[in-house]
Amino acid sequence: MRAFGLFVATAGYVGYVPIAPGTAGSAAGLVLLVAMRFCAGPELELGFLVGMVALGLWASEVGERHAAREDPGFVVVDEVAGMLLTMLWVPLTWMTALVGFLAFRLFDIVKPFPVRNAERLHGGLGIMADDLVAAVYAAVTVRLFVWILASLGTV
Fold first, then answer.
1. pLDDT tier at 119 (50, 70, 90 boundaries)?
2. Can you tell me the mean pLDDT for 80-107?
3. Rounded Cα–Cα distance for residues 150 and 96 (Å)
4. Which of 93, 78, 77 has the alpha carbon at shortest distance from 128?
5. Fewer beta carbons under 10 A from the terminal one: N or C of the chain?
């Protein structure tokens, strides 16, 4: 089970890229979203997100135990879940994907209140919570972007 936990925690070993593993994990989340929309459609997104968060809580703990330290950089399942939450039910175009990706990375790196507070939680909950809170900020941002484009008549 440890090998499976590390596979999930690293988003299929994407977390082991040497530069910017969080960004790579976010990109993996976006690829997963596109694949899910192509194969299943948006009606299954919420259930998939909930399952990913539940699995991510467990896998993050596995990753921490494996590394023997808190929030190791190779654990990127939190970024995957964050991207899925950011783009939940958002119309998927190259523009919305780019805005969602950049907004999520920004809020995940800058960590505005209460993102930093969520990061202080222990274990898998702390690993997942800060990215999910950052994703709420990013989700609002991408939805505002879509609303502005729609009001301009470009969507």
1. confident
2. 97
3. 12
4. 78
5. N
Q: Check if the beta carbon of residue 114 is closer than 8 Å to that of residue 133.
A: yes
Write out the H or E segment, with its range, that includes residue 140.
helix 123-151
H or E stretch including 142?
Answer: helix 123-151
Considering only CA atoms, which of 102, 74, 73 is closest in space to residue 86?
102
Residue-level pLDDT at 155: 59
Find the mean pLDDT for residues 99-111. Answer: 97
Question: What is the largest distance, in Å, between two alpha-carbon atoms of the chain?
Answer: 52
Q: What is the DSSP string of 36-97?
A: HHHHT-GGGHHHHHHHHHHHHHHHHHHHHHHHTSSS-TT--HHHHHHHHHHTTT----HHHH
Q: For residue 34, what are the CA distances in angstroms to 3, 39, 75, 87?
A: 26, 9, 21, 10
pLDDT band at 43 (very low <50, low <70, confident <90, very high): confident
